[in-house]
Amino acid sequence: MKQKEQFTQVAFIALRNKDGSMLTDVPLYVKVSEVTKNDISAEQECLLHKISAVMIRRYEKQISEYFAKEK
After folding, report:
1. What does the buried/exposed string (b/e) look like for 32-64 if buried means 16 or more CB atoms within 10 Å of the residue's CB?
2. Quick one: residue 20, left, alpha or beta (phi over 0 = left, psi -120 to 50 = alpha)?
3. Which pLDDT band, with edges at 50, 70 and 90, does 11 fall under?
4. Distance between alpha carbon 18 and the CA centroid of its chain, in Å?
5. In the Cβ-directed half-sphere of 16, how many Cα atoms lie within 13 Å?
6. Runs of H (alpha helix) within the chain
7. pLDDT in the model for residue 66
8. What is the reported pTM?
């Protein structure tokens, strides 16, 4: 039997209109291929932590740039 694909939400991506106004945030999902009975595997958890860290650094950079422009 084929296993149903599983996805885990890891972040939100904020999109902008051409005029700079904000669009609705779009969720970012990562495909989780093997889910154990209780939780995700250690390798998958490690991968999700890495993706989250990258997204946090990106958001921090965007927020810093925004506030620098506002000064």
Report:
1. beeeeeeebeeebeebbeeeeeeeeeeeeeeee
2. left
3. confident
4. 23
5. 5
6. 42-70
7. 82
8. 0.48
